[in-house]
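> forwarded from #structure-qc
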């Protein structure tokens, strides 16, 4: 079986990946589309730092303890797929059903996340295993490409839900990469009547407007806080200094939701947040209901994710796609179509 794996910081194609065999409660699926996530790009460049940070973090166990960077890494967690076969005694949807799933594989020995793994094959391969209890059939004839964006859209929906924003409050989204765009789409779905989006990239500002932002702002011209007074700010950049800059410039009493993943140590002035009584909420991932709600919203046309899809590549093009995604003016979401 063919698949793209991370090896020595580069994505390479293997032709000798063992065919996955579904066990009880599992299904074998044919991958139709898999989005390249920003976290995959981060892991390819900074995998050692991410693993070290995971090992230092208390309260969750070492979530990446079994990953060996000297061996091939399977990735790909934004996928849609077609059921081929089911494991022994597994009741599930019939073969040929188009599905998606939270990226987790259940087995008698525990749960394996389909994110980064030396052994659990992800969506950058021709076929993979999924858990029958977690499958969601793709409704309304929705195509596989748009269905693959269920996972990243769920990330945006989770951030918006955590903010508890009301329709009449103004939102400012700082950073219009895939996470920021997903947040804008979720704000639109929630019916928020005033959405501002800030990004240096003209292409990203244009996409933000397409996805529902009422106002787009170029921070190179002036601080976005000089041109809008948000009640909720969503930080979707993930770079050092952004949080502190928001705390310094934002109006008093805002709610700051941090969705950008910053891998470097950062510095903030608590005085800014204390004096202004700013509530700071860090968010990550989503819950099963948010995942299902994202699929429903896409399938029912409440969110049009088609403008986000700016490229498609076969397995042989994954490494080049990783490089192209570094340019914010070229792409938002590239889909791998094994």
């Amino acid at each position: 079986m063919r698949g793209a794996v991370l090896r020595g910081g580069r994505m390479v194609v293997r032709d000798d990946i063992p065919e996955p065999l579904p066990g009880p409660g599992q299904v074998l699926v044919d991958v139709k589309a898999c989005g390249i996530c920003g976290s995959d790009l981060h892991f390819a460049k900074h995998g050692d730092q991410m693993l070290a940070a995971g090992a230092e973090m208390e309260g969750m166990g070492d979530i990446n303890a079994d990953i060996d960077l000297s061996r091939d890494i399977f990735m790909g967690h934004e996928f849609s797929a077609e059921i081929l076969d089911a494991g022994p005694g597994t009741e599930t949807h019939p073969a040929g059903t188009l599905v998606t799933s939270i990226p987790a594989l259940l087995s008698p020995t525990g749960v394996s996340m389909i994110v980064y793994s030396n052994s659990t094959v992800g969506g950058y391969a021709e076929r993979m295993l999924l858990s029958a209890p977690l499958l969601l059939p793709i409704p309304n004839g929705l195509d596989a490409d748009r269905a693959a964006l269920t996972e990243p859209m769920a990330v945006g929906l989770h951030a918006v839900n955590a903010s508890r924003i009301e329709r009449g409050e103004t939102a400012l989204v700082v950073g219009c990469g895939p996470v920021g765009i997903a947040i804008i789409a979720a704000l639109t779905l929630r019916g928020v009547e005033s959405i501002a989006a800030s990004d240096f990239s003209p292409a990203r500002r244009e996409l933000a407007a397409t996805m529902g932002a009422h106002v787009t702002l170029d921070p190179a011209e002036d601080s976005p806080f000089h041109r809008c007074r948000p009640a909720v700010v969503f930080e979707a950049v993930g770079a050092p200094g952004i949080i502190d800059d928001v705390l310094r410039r934002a109006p008093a009493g805002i709610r700051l939701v941090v969705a950008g993943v910053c891998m470097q140590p950062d510095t903030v002035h608590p005085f800014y947040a204390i004096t202004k009584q700013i509530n700071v909420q860090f968010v990550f991932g989503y819950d099963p209901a948010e995942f299902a709600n994202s699929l429903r919203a896409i399938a029912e046309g409440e969110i049009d994710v088609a403008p986000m899809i700016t490229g498609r590549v076969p397995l042989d093009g994954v490494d080049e796609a990783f490089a192209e995604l570094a340019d914010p003016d070229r792409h938002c979401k590239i889909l791998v179509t094994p």
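QC bot note: Residues 38-56 form the longest helix (19 residues). Residues 58 and 237 are 25 Å apart (CA to CA).
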